[in-house]
Structure formats: structure tokens, C-alpha cells
Design brief:
Order of helices and strands: HEHHEHH
CATH class: Mainly Alpha
Oligomer: single chain
Helix content: 40-55%
Strand order of the largest sheet: 1-2
Number of domains: 1
């Protein structure tokens, strides 16, 4: 496992309930400011194995990137943690950002 992947996993695990981070934010903290897609790959391949709180990672616009059932699941999990959604289902990073 690469150091970037290890750090990405550590960072995602450290996002507390009721907070969110963007793919790009995680990538930058893990050492690659252009690695947002790699963060997505880590989430896709490692969530189950490492029990990652995948639902706390959203896009840089403060929105859920998933569609249909995935959107509904992530939306519900975030709402259950007290995260509020504004216009166009956006999350305020100032209030809920990690």
C-alpha cells in the first residue's frame, strides 16, 4: 500500500461524526493536492476492509456526488449525524467541515 493510500485511510477514519471533508481536501492533506480521484478510488476499494466512514466525504461544492440510491443512503447517514443541507442539497463547509 502506498504512503498516500495509508494516509488517505487514516484521514478518512479521523473525520468525526457530524463533519464532512471533500475529496480534494483529503488528497491535499495526504500529500497530493491533485489526488481527489485517487481518494475516490481508495473509498471504492477500501471502505469495507477498513470500515471507512465513506459518507463523510463529499465533493468540493459541498454536495453528494452519488446518484439515486447512493445519494439517498449518504444523505440519510449524514442527516442522522446532524448535518444540515441547504439550497440544492449543499453542506456548509464552514459549519460542518472537518
Amino acid at each position: 500500500m502506498s504512503p498516500f493510500t495509508e494516509e488517505t485511510i487514516r484521514l478518512i477514519k479521523s473525520i468525526p461524526a457530524g463533519k464532512v471533508a471533500s475529496y480534494g481536501q483529503i488528497a491535499a492533506y495526504a500529500g497530493n493536492h491533485r489526488g481527489a480521484r485517487q481518494v475516490s478510488r481508495v473509498l471504492h476499494t477500501c471502505t469495507k476492509k477498513y470500515k471507512l466512514p465513506w459518507h463523510r466525504v463529499i465533493n468540493s461544492q459541498g454536495k453528494i456526488s452519488l446518484k439515486n440510491e447512493g445519494f439517498e443512503l449518504q444523505y440519510g447517514l449524514l442527516k442522522d449525524e446532524g448535518i444540515e443541507f441547504g439550497l440544492n442539497n449543499t453542506i456548509d463547509f464552514k459549519k460542518f467541515g472537518f
